[in-house]
Design goal:
Layout: H1 2-23, H2 25-54, E1 65-72, E2 77-80, H3 84-93, E3 97-111, E4 117-124, H4 128-132, E5 138-139, H5 144-149, E6 153-156, H6 158-165, E7 175-178, E8 181-188, E9 203-206, E10 223-228, H7 234-249, E11 259-263, H8 264-269, H9 272-314, H10 319-352, H11 369-395, H12 400-407, H13 413-449, E12 459-463, H14 472-487, E13 492-498, E14 509-513, H15 519-522, E15 526-532, H16 536-540, E16 544-547, E17 561-565, H17 566-572, E18 582-585, E19 594-601, E20 616-620, E21 633-638, H18 646-656, E22 663-667, H19 668-675, H20 677-711, H21 713-721, H22 726-757, H23 770-797, H24 801-807
Parallel strand pairs: 4-9, 6-8, 15-20, 17-19
Antiparallel strand pairs: 1-2, 1-10, 1-11, 3-4, 3-7, 3-10, 5-8, 6-9, 7-8, 12-21, 12-22, 13-21, 14-15, 14-18, 16-19, 17-20, 18-19
Amino acid sequence: MRVLHRLDELGRDLYSGLRQVRRYPAFSSIAIVTLALGIGANTAVFSAVDAVLIRPLPYVEADRLVMIWDDMSQIGFPKHFSTPPEWRAWRQQNRVFTDIAATQPEQVTLSGDGDPEQLPARKVSGNFWSVLGVQPLVGRVFSEEEDTQGSPVAVISHGLWQRRFGGSREVAGRRMTLNDRSYEVIGVMPAAFFFLPAGDIDVWIPTSFSAAALTNFAWHDVHCVARLRPGVTLEQAREEMAALSLRISAEHVRPARAAVVTPLREELVGNTRSALVLLLSASGAILLIACLNVANLLLSRGAARRHEMAVRVALGAGRGRVIAQLFAESLVLAGLGALAGILIALPVMRFLTGFVPQTMGAVALALDGRVLVFSAMAAVAAALAFGMAPALGLSRIAGPGQLREAGRGHAGGSSHRFQYTLIVAETALAVVLLTAGGLLLQTLGHLRQLDLGMRADNLLTFEMPLFRQDDFEQRVAFVADQLAAIRSVPGVATAAAISRIPLTASDQTTRYVFPGQPAEETRTQDALSRVVTRDYFATVGAELREGRFFDLSDRRSDSPVAVVNESFTRLHFPDRPALGARFQFGRSGPDGYWYTIVGVVQDIRERGVVADLKPTVYRVHEQADQSGDRPGGIVVRASVEPISIAPAIRQAVWSVDRNQAVARLRTIEQIVAGELAAPSRSTSLLSAFALLALVLASVGLYGVLSYAVAQRTREIGVRLALGAAPRNILFFFGRRGLALTVAGLAIGLVLAAATSRVMTAVFYGFQPDYVRAASVASLVLVAVAILACLVPALRAARVDPVIALRDA
């Protein structure tokens, strides 16, 4: 019966709260909209945090999965691909993992059925599936025996199954041609399955390491994924693998290298974690500011309800009963705010979809049960945050003396002091968000102004995999024929080839050595390797710093030439010309070519917009017979809109080879936009949060001062009647508002300084000017605060003393 009684009381209190909403529509609308903004922002950001950082990965006991890397910090790669022999030795000798699987990058061309299509693929060892603990949706996966024997079997993605096989359940056993070799399709993975390095892998085939590969400690092209044994901690695995890797590699390379162990989710998420944590913190600050604003509104309205509460207490209502009723009213406001917040969250969630890393391409943001539960919890927390202080204050009314005091609508000084404290807190939080937004704006501006080392306008790129042309001379002729066909397309100014499209790849590095250089000095010498056709630099609009670019005289020779970038010369030729210097690159020893530097080019951001520059060596294709790089990336300088000629370029490529795939048609501007998508979205959303915080803080300041003027109207009338000048009243209230603003500003600047120190991960190596960001934030805040103070202060200065004294 007690339970039923409590439920009945709760129902009546909630109904009373709805009546209050209808009774005070203006007040309720402001409170609900304010809460909706805060709860909606938190709901949207949490949906992204949940999808990327919290929701279980599509593997069995995913928290026990880790990645293992080579520590190659000495050449700028603290986490580098491992080698096939290291994978085999780690798998055999470790004591901390149940098993270790290997995966390798691969590109395959699907042909023979419709237009040729380049598919993102991976080679994986036969134990890959058991290490992850995954099962196919259709068919089966390949075994370790099939991997060892090099069986031509393939497991395909759900997307390829739907696209090429119409989703047929009879797909197992059908054959498809990959890189001109027939493979049997044996299984289809579920739609939710993904793995490094991207969420759009379409084909998995066996690694089938050769005997030579399993003894090559120099060929770094293996991702290793492992499953921790039960009871083994991440730290124990790190210590074991570091020692094991040093012991194994010491026999084959100098210096010996340790292994680095990282959680799988950390690798999947990357820098997105820092951005999402920052946005979640910012949205939490917005909700807190919203709660402080609503608390101020309730405190202001509480003065009008003091008589009502006093009557309830006088009629026998206990303090707990009054608190319960007032909290129920706050819960109604929060609930309505949450419902409105969900509507606000939906478009924000669509915007936040861009935060899902490419490694987790199958993940989608959804307003599911977890997100709705979070929204409900946020509403309850908000109700507690903004409702308890006014409820506790009003519940203290008791006795006939306070009933008479309440009847006069008097609010004590402690109430005003509490409201002022809330305003200071709101202002401080707004300063933190404004300053953080300013720092991100500086960072984004810096990234957008970075010199790419080339002209990005009208530059189209695409990939043209060269898997058929094993003979070097045949490959040189084929590339030349393809470029000639592309140049014949109307609207193409010029075209060239390179082994890696600019801004897209940080791999493919090679060691080099200068004449007479001790072996110990060469161990840290590692440069990006790029093979290009002669007119590549002219096509991309690169700037020559010294010497010359490649020309027709650079033909196949055992005395080849090279063009290096400025990073290379700054490292090795800081005070003398680099032209004429000779070095071995790639193959060393008596059979290795000695390259002569004939040109120095401005640094081109080969590795990406936000990645550090690295020494780079360019070799002309006709002289790259000692390089495994194949110039399968094409850059086209167009005289028209580049995308408009993409179909004609594809037909030109097919005129030379109908089975040649053309993939990833993108302009350089699109590549740059994709690189900057995450920092751009972070900056936009945080800036929006900062502006929202500024508006809410200014509205809160305006509301408190307006309430103070209304409460002290009689006092103002007396002062004016006794001869006080209106400007004194104006300055009195204006000074009070500005004093609150300055106090909040001082606290906020201290908090903002601390916050900026933990935001370094989202600055991408740039050091924004904190003083400038804080100064701009302070000026904006003070200017808005002056406007917020001016209106109620002017109202106070214009009070008619006769009317004020008569109404009092």
